[in-house]
Here is the input.
Amino acid sequence: MRSLVNARSARPGGSRSLILRTLLVTLGASLLVGATACSDPGSTGSSGHGPATATVGDLNPVPIGPEPTPTLPVTVKSFDGSDVTVTDASRIITADRYGTLAQTVVALGLTSKLVGRSTVIPPVLEKLPSVTAGSGTLNVEAIAALRPTVFLTDTTSATPVMRDQLRALGITVVYFDPQRTMDGVVPQIEAVANALGVPAAGQKLGQRTRDEITAASATVPPRDKPLKMAFLYLRSTAITMIAGPGSGADSLIAAIGGTDAGTASGLTEPFVPITSEALIAAAPDVIIVMSDGLASVGGVDGLAKIPGIAQTPAGRDRRIVDMSDNVVLSFGPNTGRVVAALAQAVYGEKTA
Here is the structure.
């Protein structure tokens, strides 16, 4: 019986120096065009100041190879503690907050088997019917209507009541760890592959992702004092939150050599509503946001009007980095490209 690895556990692995050198060259070349920084007359003019957009190019994960043929049935340990036997992977639905599971299925080469998805997904899946509301809440009726042979989700997206409903409908559901961390990226990729009966593809994709993360981390410039970075979740001025420990953003910030400002200021929850006091206490040098979230508050100018922003070093310097909602917190097969692009946007020179 295969076990779904707890995504909180790390499984570091060394890669050959030749592969890493090649990846470093490739990432370095792509970063010259992969992160665009917008000049801002209101900034201090110092290197890296002013608004910037971190981009990874194509938001679709690159498949590890041709579509693999699943070897089924397979029994795996679901994150909810149950043993689940998957007998058919011909109709897959994935649903989680940041689209991690959908990205992984695409990167495994199984795009053609997906029949439903959640709100945040790779562009290649846009035409598939959604099984979640705008808030990310699962629609059990929509899931059942698509007749999935296997449904991949996590224990946060599916509430206990929903889990009971899915079980009553006889839908095969495999649950995954909802926490997103850098250490959990590769174990979760391999767990998804095991559940779909394609473990070899999962190991290959996991190794590629591990190598890309290692190469991307090597592009982060050394600093005597790490920058304090705050991740803000914005959905119009009605929903403004700052990230803290366990948000996933803290792990991403660490990967690009920063200190999570929310955690450092004493926050104890993954996300808490923004207050001017909390922002001033966090005192971030850099603010990271999702691109759609930034647009929802009126861009950089609108963000500056949120109480407390102007009183932070990042607000004074307008040092705001935005990145696509589809990838920034996905912690899936695009993670290496995410780290590389964010590092370039945060530390790179401004361009006109």
Observations:
- The two ends are 56 Å apart (CA to CA).
- The chain has 13 helices and 15 strands.
- Residues 56 and 261 are 24 Å apart (CA to CA).
- The chain has two domains: 20-60+221-347, 74-197.
